[in-house]
Design a protein that fits this description.
Elements (H helix, E strand, L loop, with lengths): L18 E2 L8 E9 L5 H17 L2 E7 L21 E7 L15 E2 L8 E7 H10 L4 H18 L16 H8 L7 H12 L3
Parallel strand pairs: 2-3, 2-4, 4-6
Antiparallel strand pairs: 1-2, 5-6
Helix pairs in contact: 1-3
């Protein structure tokens, strides 16, 4: 996700994730979110960011199981690995201490990315803590809110595949000041159409 220094703009990349259906038909589908924090941020900040991501997913009737993990391996549901009793749809969130690439302009910050992988029921998301913290400070936003919202967007990119960006809402490719106000009020969420597509993607991995 990138943003101009004055205008509150965000743009993100793409990827793919895995989930499992609960035994009860009326329970939400679940995804396992394995968090690999390499930034050494204070635990309270990461905990609050996780709660924000979980809240956004819950609004789409998705139970996100946010858990800390440094293990590189996770269940490959597409390969038929049945060793885990948890969700078969999972995403690994790697929080890097700094972004080491190059933005297109000097005024842009890349906050997160979800590069495409060959997996059909899972993926990896990268969040760049130095960019997120700098952006939050510059725009006087809560860092946990920014981290959790960017994380939910990138996970959304994974769940929706390579065509996840939309004209408005959480999956918009760029965010304005109005979008951040909606995020702070709890209303920057997946659209109804996006929710349907996500649940269809999760169902295909059950």
């Amino acid at each position: 996700m990138r943003t101009a220094s004055r205008a509150l703009v965000a743009a993100l990349m793409i990827g793919l994730v895995p989930t499992a259906r609960s035994a009860a038909a009326d329970e939400p589908r679940s995804i396992l979110v394995l968090v690999d924090d390499r930034s050494s941020m204070r635990p309270g900040l990461l905990d609050q960011a996780g709660k924000e991501t979980v809240r956004i997913m819950r609004a789409a009737d998705i139970r996100a199981i946010w858990t800390m993990s440094t293990a590189p391996a996770y269940v490959n549901a597409a390969a038929g690995d049945e060793r885990s009793a948890g969700p078969r749809y999972n995403v690994r969130v790697i929080i890097q201490p700094r972004f080491q690439g190059a933005a297109r302009t000097r005024s842009q910050l890349l906050l997160g990315a979800a590069p495409p992988l060959l997996r059909t029921c899972g993926g990896v998301v990268y969040l760049f803590f130095d960019q997120i913290a700098g952006f939050a400070s510059l725009q006087r936003l809560d860092a946990a809110l920014v981290l959790g919202t960017v994380g939910a967007h990138e996970i959304g990119n994974v769940l929706l595949g390579h065509n996840g960006h939309a004209g408005d809402g959480l999956m918009r490719a760029s965010w304005s000041a109005d979008h951040w106000q909606r995020a702070a009020s709890g209303f920057l969420l997946f659209s109804a159409d996006e929710r349907q597509l996500i649940h269809r993607s999760l169902a295909s991995c059950e």
